[in-house]
Design a protein that fits this description.
single chain; 585 residues; 3-stranded antiparallel sheet
Length: 585
């Protein structure tokens, strides 16, 4: 091109052209030198680099290293050595990442130990024992934990569940009338035990004998004839009540004590949500630990191609857990929030029902003439109001549901003639007692007191209906069954699809113990199972056998209501008129 330039060009253009020619020549020389060096590196891939490094370190002997590489029996044994593995020749030779040294030829070259077909390096019998000890200690620990929790929960179950004879009594009682209707000849001999057992279950309520004489004593009633001021447990048992030390009283006017150790003890007690799911959580941890042990051995002994295929299948199973967790989170959040709100509604309706009964007693206390007839009338109102409250909660409370009329007769709240009438009720004895209250108001109260009493009775009946309707409220069968199936499916998938395990890194799978992974499976699965347990047992809010700590105790509500009714109906009359002025203005 320079020779082809026109002679008309300026001297400056000629100088630029000659400089470009010199730069191009130098560039060609540099490229040729680099190509030659690259070829030399390829020819001396292993030996040249290693000898250079060895000369610098003064400790690398190529023939000795070649001999050591030749003695390596397995591919994974090249880890930590300057050797590689020729898969086509099935032997180890000295080399680098580029290939074997000393001009050896190998069509399939493995330079890194993690790329070997298997990660097994043989070893002595002692090494194998150490491997299985390192690999199997976690499943053994989880198995022991599962067995211990299973035995522990079995001991608690035997301690808290009713005896065989008690269960025979429970199963032999007619719920509609409360009368004994034993089904088998073997249970017939328990007929006499039924009332005694029932009274023992509700001793706080039936332990006091009610009589007209003690009722007329009013505020001057002796201590042994008074109703108990404290019962075995409150209407609602909360964590602050259980966190108190023995002999320590919890004051509701202040924030209750919080002790983590006591909270954990309470959470692990019988029939609590966490305690009930503890055994299942330990079993999930055991399954997850066995699954991890399988993968550690698969990463060590299984061919790389087969391992990758199995890892892909396991990751596909793990993908199922992602939408399942989304569905479970959505369904459980919606159902749990609504069920807790429902539980609080049942609790508050009990207090509202108690207030309606107090209104009726306060208005009935207007009948203050101190005559025998009026005392009997007030005592009758007191008994019928308590019977109404009792029959409201009896169908939903196990300790009351299996009662006949005998305990009520023995404690003085029911008379024999009234019991015969109550047995004939079409729906429940509570409707009869509500009618008796209406008749009492019509016969004994007048004018404004009568109108207000009827209004209070209507409110009382409405509260009773609300309590019964709330307890009967359930989720649709399709929704509840779908919730259970989705939760159980997720819990079943969790042990075989841990989300934080990288199956691509075989060495990390083989060498790690993965304690956190196993623990996470137990915590997450136990949390879901605990929620399901809590939601299932909250459907029976007064079941002290199924959920002893979460169940409401209507006996405490009745005790509080009864003591206040006595105050309203037995207080002495005082002069409530305004005093007259001695001098007029």
């Amino acid at each position: 091109q320079a020779r082809g330039l026109s002679t008309r060009r300026s001297p400056r253009a000629l100088v630029s052209a000659s400089g470009a020619m010199r730069l191009a020549a130098r560039t060609r020389l540099v490229v040729a030198a680099l190509a030659a060096a690259h070829c030399a590196c390829i020819r001396q891939a292993g030996e040249g680099v290693l000898q250079h490094l060895g000369r610098e370190a003064g400790r690398f002997d190529v023939p000795a290293e070649n001999e050591k590489c030749g003695n390596i029996p397995q591919c994974y044994c090249i880890k930590g050595t300057p050797c590689g593995w020729c898969k086509s020749a099935n032997r180890s030779v000295l080399g680098s990442n580029k290939g074997p040294a000393e001009g050896d030829r190998c069509s399939v070259w493995v330079a890194k130990a993690e790329d070997c077909p298997t990660l097994y390096c043989g070893g002595t019998a002692q090494d194998e024992r150490l491997w299985w000890l390192h690999c199997g200690w976690l499943p053994v620990v989880c198995l022991i934990g599962w067995i211990v929790t299973y035995v522990w929960r079995g001991v608690l179950r035997a301690r808290h569940q009713p005896t065989k004879d008690d269960m025979a009594v429970l199963n032999a009682v007619n719920f509609s009338t409360g009368a004994a209707a034993f089904r088998t000849a073997e249970a017939a001999n328990l007929a006499a035990k039924g009332p005694e057992w029932a009274e023992a279950q509700a001793a706080d309520f039936f332990g006091t004998k009610r009589t007209l004489e003690s009722f007329r004593k009013g505020m001057h009633c002796p201590e042994d004839e008074r109703l108990p001021t404290k019962i075995s447990r409150p209407y609602e048992l909360n964590l602050s009540d259980l966190s108190c030390k023995p002999g320590e009283n919890y004051e509701k006017s202040r924030v209750g004590p919080h002790r983590l150790s006591v909270t954990v003890q309470v959470a692990l007690q019988w029939r609590t949500a966490l305690g009930s799911s503890l055994t299942k959580a330990m079993f999930l941890m055991f399954v997850a630990s066995v699954f991890i042990m399988f993968w550690r051995n698969a990463a060590r002994f299984m061919e790389k191609d087969s391992y990758e295929w199995l890892a892909m299948a396991t990751e596909e199973v793990g993908v199922i857990a992602i939408p399942l967790q989304t569905a479970v989170g959505m369904l459980l959040s919606f159902y749990a929030l609504n069920r807790i709100a429902w539980y609080w509604s049942v609790l508050m309706e009990g207090h509202i029902l108690q207030g309606r009964a107090h209104d009726l007693g306060m208005l009935g206390g207007a009948l203050k003439e101190d005559t025998d007839e009026n005392w009997l009338a007030r005592y009758t109102l007191y008994r019928h109001a308590m019977l109404t409250l009792f029959f409201t909660y009896q169908p939903f409370t196990p300790r009351l549901r299996f009662l006949g009329f005998d305990p009520l007769l023995n404690c003085g709240l029911l008379e024999a003639e009234e019991a015969e009438i109550l047995k004939l009720a079409h729906r429940s004895p509570g409707t009869v007692t509500e009618s008796w209250l209406s008749s009492w108001i019509e016969a004994n109260l007048r004018e404004e007191a009568r109108q207000q009493a009827f209004h209070a009775l209507r409110e009382l009946r409405a509260s009773i209906s609300v309590v019964q309707a709330l307890v009967d409220q359930r989720a649709p069968v399709s929704f509840e069954s779908l919730l259970y199936i989705v939760v159980y499916a997720l819990v079943a998938v969790l042990p075989i699809s841990p989300s934080n395990v990288n199956y691509d890194n075989r060495e990390a799978i083989m060498e790690g113990v993965h304690v956190a992974t196993v623990l996470g499976v137990g915590i997450l699965g136990g949390f879901y199972l605990a929620l399901i347990h809590m939601l299932r047992h909250l459907q029976a809010p007064f079941d002290h056998i199924g959920a002893p700590h979460d169940a409401l105790n209507p006996l405490a509500l009745m005790n509080n209501t009864e003591r206040k009714l006595r105050d309203y109906l037995t207080l002495p009359v005082v002069n409530t008129r305004a005093p007259r002025a001695k001098h007029s203005i």
